[in-house]
Structure formats: structure tokens, C-alpha cells
Amino acid sequence: MNKKKYCISILLIVFVMMLAACGKNRNDKREDYYKDKESRDIITTYLNGYVYWEDGKYVAVYNSGENPPLVYKGSRECEQSNGLVLADRTDYSTYQDRPFSDVIRDLGEPHTDIGSGLYIPAYFTKDAHLAAFYVDQEKVAGIDLIDLLGVNTIKHIGKK
To answer: Which of 3, 18, 110, 151 fits a 20 to 30 Å CA distance from 43?
Structure first.
């Protein structure tokens, strides 16, 4: 009887592992992200995301497509945030030379990281911008405000 249970358990484990292997993995998602990106009329691009125009709306893809996209109207109002709490447009220069923990306290955890080898946390705003914070030794060393709709691409605040 124990031998029978053991064999059934092994078969069940093998079956579950086969199902997991057949599922869509992270690399497939990344491949889909790049194929999708190539087929779009891109308005703005940044390290791990891009914005494109579709059906009268701006669609912001971020974290290499691993999260649901944000959707903005032409008036810059966010129509679909998928549970992401967007930052208010504020005077981000007040964070210059302050601890990055102050930014987290006020804005919450960053929405994405747009750095390539460097940690550059960023927040999506309610009015279709991406506020990127350059952090050096736990302090804000510089801030870029990226226009997701491509009008004024980057406004740099402070030193980098």
C-alpha cells in the first residue's frame, strides 16, 4: 500500500512539474514585450518601458511589460492605473539633497526602476509624467521629469 502511495505521489509531482514547465515563463513575457514594442508607433521610450498611441489614448507599458499598462487620455488624465497609486504633480525640486526616504514617505514605494546598472527609482504621475530620482548615498542627487506623451521629453531638476 505504501509503495502505491509513493508511486502516485511521484507521478503527481512529475505531472505538476510538467504543467509548470509548459506555462508561459518570464523570458516568454520579455520576448512578447520586445515583439510588441517593435510593432508599435512609439511616442516615448525609457529603459524598461515605452508609451504608444492606440484608439485615442496613450498606453504606458512599464517594467518590461510585466505589469498591466497605464492608460492616459489626450488631456493627460489617467484613465486606467490598475491599482497603482499615481503621484501628484508637485515641485519635485524640494526633494533635492534630501534623504530618498523622504520621497518614499511622501510618494510611497517607487513604481519602477529606469536605471541600467544604477538604481534610478521612478514614479508615474497623474498627469502623464515619470519622475525619476537619481540617488547617491541615500540622498536625492538629481531629478528628471519625463513627459510620457513626448511633448517636453525631459526636464532636469538639480544636479545629476
So the answer is: 110
Strands, E assignment, 37-77: 42-46, 49-54, 57-61, 70-73
Q: What is the pLDDT of residues 84-132, one digit of tens each?
A: 999 988 889 999 999 999 999 999 999 999 888 888 999 999 999 999 9
- Kindly state the helix (H) or strand (E) to which residue 154 belongs, with its residue range: strand 154-157
Q: How many CB atoms lie within 10 A of CB 107?
A: 21
| Residue in the block written with cell 520586445 | 34
Q: How far apart are CA 65 and CA 124, in angstroms?
A: 15
Q: What residue spans define the domains of the chain? A: 41-157
Distance, in Å, from the CA atom of 51 to the CA atom of 151, rounded to the nearest integer, reads 12
Distance CA 136, CA 33 (A): 31
Q: Which residues pair with 140 in a beta bridge?
A: 135
The enclosing H or E element of 11 equals: helix 2-22
Question: Can you spell out the DSSP letters for 72-121?
Answer: EETTS-EEE-TT--PBPP--GGGGTTSBHHHHHHHH-S-SEE--SSS--E
Contact 71, 112 (CB under 8 A): no
Displacement of CA 139 from its chain's centroid (Å): 22
